[in-house]
Write a structure and sequence with these properties.
By secondary structure, the protein is α+β, with helices and mostly antiparallel strands.
Length: 555
């Protein structure tokens, strides 16, 4: 190797001192020759450079470039790049083709086709973050792109959350002689007459006079400090869902319907200790109960023995309690659905329905509703006739012997006894309800031998074909076996509904509750259309004064 003096000189001298020496003592070609010699010596020694020496050499090269090249600001093309885009556009518009070509040849930054910059990450606000968290907690796939026609993630997620919440939660429920409400402040109110087990929840004595009556919705004293989001009731027992996912039950406790491990009655609401993080509740007419938690797990308890007809009874394995009891005294998970995430439940007189987040509907019980036969199902089985429609179902409802299922698009299917399946004829397999073609249904409910549906426009449809039906809101009528719009709601958009065998309650978007039917056992001060045998009948919708419930408005 030649003398290492030039190399050592470069590495040992301060770069700025070296450059000043070059500029002071060498001029023109002499300086360039010296630089070439030094560079040649560096090139020969480069294989022996350490990483630190190589980095230092690169730094020296950059400083040399700065010494001999004029500052970037002195180059016209570079100064052009510093101009605002709008001003640069004006300047370029005044150049002819030749000048543009020269400019492009002078500055590569102006010439090359710059790649499109990646889009900046979308900023997600706290509201959208919370909505996404709720969807994730429910196991819902939000996706990475907006649905077709949507323009806002927040609006899209709000609509979805509202729909899911509206289908899972009910601010009102009706029994045969009582009603339950959740007011705008989340307080629990009841009205009507105490029956077996004191379903009104106002007295500490479960053996109190069953004739005790409360003529207007009144706060349940023991629940005044609890915030409630949903209620459910049967003729004999009641359930309330708290804001923290806890469940309260009261009323008649036969067959373990209250879920406290015994058959004792509870005169006032009592928390079910074995349940938590619940999002959906149901109380069946056959002293059965159900709940779905935030993970989509279905729990059932209560009576396991169902009447099949002709004095035959059958046992539901999923409801059977310990020791072979014909009831399950505490909530028990339905293991047969452990591979599915349940989002909705409905309890009929002899069967149960569950809908999953995948849009499938499962059946459990007797009379084979939905499978086209009279065979019983002791464990849940998917309803193939609904699966074959290739539709995604989002809600179910059940009467005593009929059932309803609602698709994501708002199409309604009904089957079972002709009393209220929507077809006017008995249907063992599900069939789309023709009377609601062209309507987008968003809510459904059924009880005993009556059904109802609410459309996206907030219009209420009711139907049944049993007896003298004041609970349909169509005036004095004896039958209405297909869906018919309820007039007389004053244009109020209905946001919640609960239909019973004798009366119906509907809440509009402002929380006003409209009532119709045989209401003498529920309210004292309503103007009635008809009275007979000490019964007060309100045959058309009438608002309940002073009551406002927790209705879900559109976002």
């Amino acid at each position: 190797m030649k003398s290492e003096e030039p190399v050592n000189r470069i590495f040992n001298a301060a770069p700025n001192d070296l450059f000043r020496e070059l500029q002071r003592n060498m001029a023109g070609d002499t300086a360039l020759a010296a630089l070439r010699a030094a560079a040649h010596e560096c090139q020969l020694a480069a294989p022996s450079f350490t990483d630190e020496q190589a980095a230092q050499g690169l730094a020296i090269t950059d400083e040399l470039r700065a010494v001999f090249l004029p500052p970037a600001s002195s180059q016209p093309a570079s100064r052009l790049l510093q101009l605002p885009a709008e001003l640069l556009s004006i300047i370029l518009s005044r150049l002819d083709t030749r000048d543009l070509a020269l400019l492009a040849a002078t500055c590569r930054s102006l010439c090359r086709d710059a790649p499109a910059p990646p889009p900046p990450p979308r900023q997600i606000g706290p509201v959208e973050t919370e909505l996404r968290r709720r969807a994730e907690a429910r196991g819902l796939d939000v996706g990475s792109s907006l649905p077709e026609g949507a323009t806002s993630w927040v609006a899209c997620l709000l609509k979805r959350d509202r729909r899911d919440t509206q289908m899972r939660q009910a601010p009102l429920a009706v029994g045969s002689v009582h009603a339950i409400f959740v007011d705008k402040g989340g307080r629990l109110l009841t009205s009507g007459r105490d029956g077996v087990g004191a379903p009104l929840g106002h007295t500490e004595d479960p053996d109190a006079d069953p004739g005790h009556q409360i003529g207007s919705p009144t706060l349940v004293p023991s629940m005044q400090d609890r915030r409630i989001v949903s209620v459910a009731t049967s003729q004999y027992h009641c359930l309330a869902l708290g804001a923290e996912g806890e469940v309260y039950s009261w009323g008649e406790g036969a067959y373990g319907a209250l879920g406290h491990g015994d058959e004792g009655a509870r005169a006032v609401p009592s928390m079910i200790e074995t349940l938590s993080h619940i999002e959906c509740i149901a109380a069946g007419p056959n002293q059965t109960s159900a709940a779905v938690d935030e993970k989509g797990r279905l729990f059932t308890w209560g009576r396991a023995r169902f009447y099949k007809g002709e004095d035959e009874y059958g046992e539901l394995d999923e409801f059977r309690g310990p020791g072979g009891l014909d009831y399950q005294p505490t909530p028990k998970r339905v293991d047969a659905l452990s591979q599915n995430r349940v989002v909705g439940i409905a309890l009929g007189l002899t069967f149960a329905l569950a809908v999953t987040d995948a849009g499938a509907v499962f059946f459990l019980g007797f009379t084979g509703l939905g499978h086209g036969s009279l065979e019983s199902e002791v464990v849940p089985r998917r309803i193939d006739a609904l699966t074959q429609t290739r539709r995604r179902f989002v809600a179910v409802a059940a009467g005593d012997h009929h059932a309803l299922a609602l698709t994501e698009e708002g199409d309604l299917y009904g089957w079972g006894d002709a009393c209220a399946n929507g077809h006017g004829d008995e249907e063992r397999a599900p069939r789309r309800v023709a009377a609601l073609f062209g309507e987008r249904v968003k809510l459904i409910d059924a009880r005993h031998d009556a059904s109802c549906a609410v459309t996206e426009k907030g219009e209420l449809f009711t139907w049944s074909s049993s007896g003298c039906l004041f609970n349909l809101g169509h005036g004095v009528t004896t039958s209405q076996d297909t869906p018919k719009r309820v007039e007389g709601l004053g244009g109020a958009g209905i946001a919640a509904v609960a239909i019973g065998g004798w009366h119906t309650l509907a809440a509009d978007r402002d929380g006003v509750v409209w009532a119709f039917g045989e209401l003498s056992k529920l309210f004292d001060d309503l103007n009635h259309n008809y009275s007979s045998n000490n019964s007060i009948v309100v045959a058309t919708p009438t608002p309940i004064p002073t009551l406002r419930v927790r209705a879900l408005k559109s976002p």
